[in-house]
Design brief:
The protein is an alpha+beta fold and 585 residues long. 33% of the residues lie in helices and 20% in strands. The strands form four sheets. A seven-stranded antiparallel sheet has the order 14-11-13-12-16-17-15. Bound molecules: flavin-adenine dinucleotide and 2-acetamido-2-deoxy-beta-D-glucopyranose (10 copies). Keywords: FAD, Flavoprotein, Oxidoreductase, Signal.
Length: 585
């Protein structure tokens, strides 16, 4: 494939680049001149930002020893990157451009960082940016936090629509044919902790990511697993309506009754693909106390065999725990297991201790494995801050890891846990870290079309695989664990090649072992190996064809392109970072 295509691109040469077959890069003929950028800046009321990567303080001529040391120290904290219009939290996609750990004498270059960003304050700013990019054949990127695992919020020569400051949150009662309850309308920049805090102040809870700084919009478009998913479903299940700027620069509403195809695709069909979400109206729920817990144990206080038995017991018990109303987040290596937190909505720490975790702690006692446990009864905000905080930064490091993943079906935990455990044991013995988010991921909100009676309740409704109120990969509904495989990322510049070798192992060795015990399964488009080969099948499954036709309808020219998004294989990024069509005659 590569040879034929690159020959065509090379032969097409510069002539092809001047056409719409490739997006322009700075320096190309046709790249907007200073006056054109100034005119855009005027249209957006001075909110156009020319990128200055935050790593510039570590490079001549703007080197500043103190600022550089502080940046290096804070590099793995999300907060370090959030105020920047260009920074990304997956170092592979920054590709060592203006890297704070490379030599001071190496010039700070943009590389894969966006060239410009519009620091948007309204849907009108988004429209202006979309129109400017399409008119001038410039690559467009939608960027909120820069958390993306696939570098989907960055790109060479791109104009970014930077949504971070669209952070309004309003609560109101909502009533229509599908839902009567409380709701909030949020700007596209709202992050998890902001929604959790605001909902708490309003006596409500909202479904957000476990990481406090993950943006709700990107989370929702991918699917969105939450510490409240067992009670309320995925993030994508919460949306009542979107305001969206489409590829032609129009602002439209997408809901079950307006532009319902776009609504369906935006809700789980992958981020950054169908349009730019300006706001979302999502369900909220009356607050209740949360039963919580954390448990930690170490192989240092038992034998390796017994430690593995404890890990196997946890996995065997996860379906029962989710049936009892729990969400369980855990990490494991071959020497440490940490469950933090267990979350049960409208419950108590005592219930978690004596009912949810009792079979597991009894098993640990039987194995003679000592463990540390904590049980709590807290508001959701306090629970979130205790186990997933401190807010706002959270306890997860960024720029520190590489990822692969697989959705683990409930049936595998029930009927083939032994095979799963031998894979997990082998993976951890090779240094892979496991990070699991276990819940009952069935929708609690959708109208079922599989039964004769139509139910729209907040209790679990059993959805068959093809229920399609939104574009969430159907395999999610049979999933008990979203299991991530993690290897460390070393920021030392000389470790680059070793990190690429780790990527190859993730793709070629680690993920396939999990695939072998989860036939017919899938993977989470927001938390996966970005090199996954069978991405259409694994991220979008039976929905791919329908998503592709919605993409073709709303974005026929491919204005919105993200790595491994629906329709993305009609384009490719070359060695210079240039985005070019691959499907032209
Ligand atoms: C530390 C960490 C913890 C995480 N925890 C969870 C978790 O608990 N649950 C979970 O489900 N996922 C989690 N994720 C994955 C997360 O869902 C994705 O990284 C997601 O892409 C983050 O969205 P963002 O807007 O914050 O990031 P960005 O990198 O800013 O954007 C991500 C993608 O969303 C698109 N996008 C963002 N805003 C818009 C918009 N307004 N319109 C159109 N497209 C848009 C971007 O184009 C890009 O493709 C986690 C990730 C990290 C790094
Ligand atoms: C846009 O205008 C503002 C206000 O005049 C200015 O501060 C900013 O530097 C301009 N942006 C660019 C990229 O020139
Ligand atoms: C972006 O806009 C916000 C206000 O909406 C402002 O506080 C912030 O400083 C701006 N950031 C940049 C980099 O221009
Ligand atoms: C919400 O309330 C309205 C008015 O009472 C009613 O018509 C509608 O069917 C209700 N929706 C649901 C999902 O119950
Ligand atoms: C909590 O559970 C009780 C019954 O156990 C129920 O009456 C109440 O409505 C629930 N509260 C919420 C907010 O779901
Ligand atoms: C889960 O609960 C069911 C019903 O109570 C029980 O039969 C089963 O043994 C439990 N599973 C495990 C692994 O203990
Ligand atoms: C957990 O429950 C057991 C009884 O099942 C009890 O002995 C123990 O003290 C409880 N732990 C905490 C921390 O409450
Ligand atoms: C699900 O839908 C797809 C595409 O519409 C169809 O090919 C498949 O047979 C359906 N599967 C089931 C179980 O109905
Ligand atoms: C265990 O993992 C290693 C490293 O990925 C792999 O080479 C090996 O084949 C695996 N062993 C088994 C039994 O799958
Ligand atoms: C369990 O998984 C293995 C593959 O690792 C497979 O060969 C076997 O058939 C599976 N067993 C069941 C009961 O699904
Ligand atoms: C990183 O930059 C090199 C050139 O320095 C280029 O060949 C490569 O494709 C880039 N990789 C990414 C992921 O952008």
């Amino acid at each position: 494939m590569k040879t034929a295509l690159s020959a065509a691109v090379v032969l097409g040469g510069l002539a092809a680049r001047a056409t719409a077959q490739c997006r322009l890069l700075p320096g190309d003929a046709g790249w907007p001149d200073a006056a054109a950028w100034a005119a855009l800046n005027e249209t957006v009321n001075g909110r156009l930002v020319a990128s200055v990567p935050i790593g510039h303080v570590c490079h001549d001529p703007t080197y500043d020893a103190d600022a550089c040391a502080a940046l290096q120290k804070g590099w793995t904290r999300p907060m370090t990157h959030l105020g920047s219009s260009s920074s990304v939290m997956q170092p592979f996609f920054a590709n060592q451009s203006c890297d704070p750990f490379t030599e001071q004498s190496k010039p700070c270059q943009l590389g894969n960082y966006v060239s410009y960003a519009v620091n948007v304050s309204s849907a009108g700013d988004i429209q202006a940016a979309v129109r400017f990019a399409t008119k001038n054949n410039i690559r467009l990127v939608v960027r909120n936090t820069g958390h993306d695992y696939f570098g989907r919020s960055t790109g060479a020569g791109a104009l970014a629509i930077w949504t971070h400051y669209l952070d309004s949150i309003d609560f109101f009662p909502f009533s229509d044919a599908s839902y009567n309850g409380t709701a909030m309308k949020i700007g596209a920049g709202v992050m998890g902790y902001q929604a959790v805090q605001a909902a708490d102040a309003a006596g409500l809870v909202a479904v957000t990511g476990e990481c406090p700084t993950v943006g709700l919009a990107g989370f929702t478009m991918g699917a969105g697993h939450s510490a409240l998913s067992t009670s309320f479903g995925l993030g994508a299940d919460q949306v009542l309506a979107y305001e969206v700027v489409t590829a032609d620069g129009q602002l439209v509403t997408a809901s079950p009754t307006h532009n319902s195809d776009l609504y369906w695709a935006l809700s789980g069909g992958g981020p950054g693909t169908y349009g730019v979400v300006a706001s979302m109206t999502v369900r909220t729920y009356p607050a209740a106390m949360i039963g919580g817990a954390s448990i930690a144990l170490s192989a240092a206080y038992t034998t390796p065999e017994k430690f593995q038995q404890a890990l196997a017991a946890l996995h065997a018990l996860l379906p029962n725990m989710t049936d009892l109303g729990a969400d369980i987040i855990y990490t494991a290596t071959n020497s440490v297991l940490q469950i933090s937190p267990v979350t049960v909505f409208n419950s108590t720490g005592e219930y978690v201790n004596t009912t949810v975790l009792a079979p597991f702690t009894a098993r640990l006692a039987a194995l003679g494995i000592p463990f540390r446990a904590q049980y709590t009864t807290l508001s959701y905000l306090d629970h979130y801050a205790t186990y997933l905080g401190p807010l706002p930064n959270g306890n997860l490091a960024v720029s520190s890891y590489q990822f692969g993943s697989r959705l683990i079906p409930r049936s595998v935990l029930l009927y083939n846990n032994t095979a799963l455990q031998s894979v997990l044991q082998n993976l951890t013995s090779h240094g892979v870290i496991l990070a699991g988010s276990a819940a009952d991921y069935r929708s609690k909100t959708m109208t079922t079309t599989t039964t004769t009676t139509t139910t729209t309740t907040t209790t679990a409704t059993l959805l068959k695989k093809n229920d399609s109120a939104n574009a969430v990969l159907p395999q999610w509904r049979d999933t008990t664990v979203q299991l991530q495989l993690i290897t460390r990322w070393n920021n030392t510049p000389s470790a680059w090649d070793a990190m690429l070798a780790e990527q190859r192992r993730m793709t070629e060795e680690y993920v396939p072992q999990l695939e072998s015990v989860t036939p017919g399964g899938g993977a989470y488009v927001n938390e996966a190996d970005f090199r996954l080969q069978e991405w259409k099948r694994d991220f979008f499954g039976v929905n791919y064809g329908r998503l592709m036709s919605i993409k073709a309808k709303w974005d026929p020219e491919g204005v919105f392109w993200v790595l491994k998004g629906v329709g993305s294989d009609r384009w490719a990024v070359d060695g210079e970072g240039r985005l070019c069509r691959t499907d032209q005659d």
